[in-house]
Amino acid sequence: MSASLLPAPSADARLRYVLRLADTSLILGQRLAEWVGHAPALEEDLGLANIALDLIGQARLLLSYAGELEGRGRSEDDLAFLRDAPQFLNLTLVEQPNGDFGRTLVRQLLVSAWQLELFEALQGCADARLAEIAAKALKETRYHLRYSASWIVRLGDGTAESHARVQNALDELWQFTGELFAEDEVDAAMLAAGIAPSAAPLKASWLARIDAVLAEATLIRPADSVFPWHGRGGVHTEHLGYMLAEMQFLQRAYPGAQW
């Protein structure tokens, strides 16, 4: 079916879908930025900082688009710094604390593999603006996945301690991955419009990528579990509020401040 014959999603569904993508990249970028000056080596300090900048750059493009879709005159900065936690629609996984270096890289692997599959699908979607953003983000995400996967293999197949740490991190963080593929009315509307991909094939491709890395890293994939978090619906863990308090402090302390 041609794009012109597909049903158009409601304005609210399209806005919420774009905000979910934007907020996920923004919050993960903020989390990685917390490593600046604290990574185990200068090279990794720069590596994590570069990934953080990529993610925040993706968020800027998506938030600008979201502002246009919303039609209320809010800029990317307004959407980033002047919304409260229940108004953020990011994946619950990305708001989880960094923990140690291995835990951060496990989280990055899980998210990067998901973003790679998603952006590959979106670059051919019926929304030209979203397709353009996805095509640009895809190039960056391939690097993010290579970086995180190489470290997970290195740590998983390393010492007994490094193996135990990343396995424990994987066991703790896996519970949040169900949300990556949980479809709701927003996803259904975007799928019907030829924009969002179907979750089932996306999950299959994601699992194949993850399983290949885990096998090389001698790690065991945890069992799936029911999850009570729905960050994409505005229901978050306690961690997001603390993060936003720090991230938004300057703008809220000095409203309208500009460099």
Question: Superfamily at the CATH H level?
Answer: Ferritin, core subunit, four-helix bundle
The low-confidence runs, each spanning 5 or more residues with pLDDT under 50, are: none
- Shape label: globular
Number of domains: 1
Secondary-structure arrangement, i.e. CATH architecture: Up-down Bundle
- Please compute the radius of gyration using only Cα atoms: 18 Å
The CATH topology: Ferritin
List the helices and strands in order: HHHHHHHHHH
CATH top level class name: Mainly Alpha
> Structural class, from secondary structure content?
mainly alpha
Summarize the structure.
With 259 residues, the protein is an all-alpha fold. It has helices at 11-33, 42-70, 76-81, 101-122, 128-156, 160-173, 185-192, 199-216, 239-247, 249-253.
Question: If you had to describe this structure to a student in words, what would you say it looks like?
Answer:
- By secondary structure, the protein is mainly α.
- Helix 1 runs antiparallel to helix 2 and helix 2 packs antiparallel against helix 5 (128-156).
- It has helices spanning 11-33, 42-70, 76-81, 101-122, 128-156, 160-173, 185-192, 199-216, 239-247, 249-253.
- The longest helix has 29 residues, at 42-70.
- It has a single domain, classed as Ferritin, core subunit, four-helix bundle (Ferritin).
- The protein is built from 10 helices and no strands.
Can you give keywords for this protein?
single chain; 259 residues; globular
Topology overview:
Elements: H1 11-33, H2 42-70, H3 76-81, H4 101-122, H5 128-156, H6 160-173, H7 185-192, H8 199-216, H9 239-247, H10 249-253
